[in-house]
From TrEMBL:
Keyword Metal-binding among UniProt keywords: yes
Organism listed in the record: Agromyces indicus
ZnF locations on chain (dksA C4-type): 102-126
Statement: the UniProt record of this protein carries the keyword Membrane: no
Region feature (Disordered): 33-71
Gene3D superfamilies for this protein: DksA, coiled-coil domain (1.20.120.910)
Highest classification ranks of the organism: Bacteria, Bacillati, Actinomycetota, Actinomycetes, Micrococcales
Key words of the record: Metal-binding, Zinc, Zinc-finger
Name of the protein described by the UniProt record: TraR/DksA C4-type zinc finger protein
Domain of life of the source: Bacteria
All copies of domain Zinc finger DksA/TraR C4-type, residue ranges: 97-129
């Protein structure tokens, strides 16, 4: 069963490896969900501060205004939402047995690449062509 020779890509071969990636993705999902909750809370706080007339938006001209903070937070929120979608898709691929397979060419994605980016859906070659 040892065929590590040559320079070909080493994809996921064992159920243990797959489980390891599932754990990794579950941890990432937990973390993303926490950040999402945190950002949502922050946005609610900003929204409340804005609707509360006692906060003067122009008070500190050098500091970030409420609207700046608002857009920063919503931008982060969108990033985390995207990340969460990617992580959930990756987990679904683990369940249906297509995890670690390039969506474009059907080749195995290298374990090294998946370790760096567990949500990767393309092999390194296809990813290079896309960008
Ligand atoms: Zn590919």
């Amino acid at each position: 069963m040892h065929d590590d020779g040559g320079g070909h890509v080493t994809g996921i071969r064992s159920a243990e490896q797959l489980e390891r990636f599932r754990e990794l993705l579950l941890a990432e999902r937990r973390e993303a969900e926490e950040r999402l909750a945190e950002q949502s809370e922050g946005i609610t706080a900003v929204r409340e501060a804005r609707s509360d007339g006692s906060v003067d938006d122009e008070h500190d001209p050098d500091g970030p205004t409420m609207s700046q903070e608002w857009s920063q937070r919503t931008a982060v929120l969108h990033d985390v939402e995207h990340e969460l979608v990617d992580v959930k898709r990756a987990l679904a691929r683990i369940d249906d047995g297509t995890y670690g397979v390039c969506e474009k060419c059907g080749q195995k994605i290298s374990v090294a690449r998946l370790e760096a980016r567990p949500t990767a859906t393309l092999c390194i070659d296809c990813a290079r062509k896309v960008r």
